[in-house]
């Protein structure tokens, strides 16, 4: 990366961004971590032909954003706007190429994951910890907090049972294999740890608490893997497979009535789209399109 760009980026990450000053609001370390993770590959791309941030044009920004979609694109836009606003205030650039850049609203309607999304997750989830986290979300629709708080006492490996957030479930083959791999790595790396949590790191291995939310973000979210997307896809797949029954979804995944009804409605709409059925506002069939 060009030295001038590196210097500007280091200044952007300086303590002033954490503490704020008379010209900028303070930013949390998590926010800076996400922003830096978004802009670094873009800057590395530019560094091949540009020597300074002031050389970046609107066309350059549009070009690097064009292949990005969804939240990845939205986060990149936010990060670039933050970086160039900072550079403009500090006199590092003459014109801000992101001034007219706006983040599009993300479509909130849940749809099944595409083959490309699934392959991307498989490629990123390489370590035993990453594979376990993804498996728990993909098979058991486990939330991030429940995954962090999962302990050895929640596992009944001989009987293939697992308790997630107080909800006992049968342990699927994928979850079983990823658990065995993670537990084997755990025993080798921290053989004498007093911590009973399945997911631990060098810091939590010395105590008894769970890993932080930042642990999951660093391992997956910052690399483009969204657990809620995977979890939602699992629930939706169940609804599409066995029928859009909110009671079934609530019992299988320990969902609230509201959440189960929402997934059931989405699944029913997708099924209706396939068969050409039209429904009114309260879900009654009104005919075929």
What's this entry about, in short?
By secondary structure, the chain is mainly alpha-helical.
What do these coordinates show?
This is Integrase. GO terms for molecular function: DNA binding. The chain has about 290 residues and is mainly α. It folds into 3 domains: about 5-90, no CATH class; about 115-210, no CATH class; about 230-289, no CATH class. Helix content is about 55%, strand content about 5%. It has 13 helices and 5 strands. It has helices at about 5-10, 15-20, 30-45, 60-65, 70-90, 115-125, 130-140, 145-150, 175-190, 215-220, 225-240, 245-255, 255-275; strands at about 155, 160-165, 165-170, 275-280, 285-289. A 3-stranded antiparallel beta sheet has the order 1-2-3, with no helix packed on it. β4 (about 275-280) and β5 (about 285-289) form a beta hairpin. α7 packs antiparallel against α9, α7 runs parallel beside α11 (about 225-240) and α12 (about 245-255) crosses α13 (about 255-275). It is globular, with a radius of gyration of 23 Å. About 25% of the residues are buried. The model is unreliable at about 15-20 and about 275-280 (pLDDT under 50).
């Amino acid at each position: 990366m060009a030295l001038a760009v590196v210097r500007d980026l280091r200044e952007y990450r300086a303590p002033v961004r954490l503490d704020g000053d008379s010209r900028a609001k303070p930013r949390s370390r998590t926010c800076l971590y996400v922003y830096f993770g978004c802009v670094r590959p873009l800057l590395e791309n530019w560094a091949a032909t540009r020597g300074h941030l002031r050389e970046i044009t609107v066309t350059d920004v549009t070009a690097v954003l064009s292949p990005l979609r969804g939240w990845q694109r939205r986060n990149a836009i936010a990060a670039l706007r933050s970086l160039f606003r900072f550079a403009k205030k500090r006199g590092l650039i003459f014109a801000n190429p992101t001034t007219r850049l706006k983040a599009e609203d993300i479509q909130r309607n849940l749809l099944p994951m595409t083959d490309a999304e699934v392959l991307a997750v498989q490629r990123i989830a390489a370590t035993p910890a990453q594979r376990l986290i993804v498996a728990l979300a993909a098979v058991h629709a486990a939330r991030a907090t429940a995954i962090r708080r999962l302990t050895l006492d929640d596992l009944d490996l001989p009987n293939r049972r697992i308790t997630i957030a107080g909800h006992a479930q049968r342990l699927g083959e994928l979850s079983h294999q990823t658990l065995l791999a993670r537990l084997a790595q755990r025993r080798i790396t921290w053989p004498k740890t007093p911590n009973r949590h399945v997911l631990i790191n060098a810091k939590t291995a010395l105590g008894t608490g769970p890993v932080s939310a930042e642990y999951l973000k660093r391992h997956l979210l910052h690399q483009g893997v969204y657990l809620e997307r995977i979890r939602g896809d699992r629930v939706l797949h169940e609804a599409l497979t066995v029928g859009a029954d909110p009671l079934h979804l609530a019992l299988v995944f320990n969902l609230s009535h509201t959440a189960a009804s929402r997934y059931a409605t989405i699944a029913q709409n997708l099924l209706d789209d396939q068969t050409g059925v039209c429904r009114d506002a309260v879900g009654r069939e009104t005919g075929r399109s």
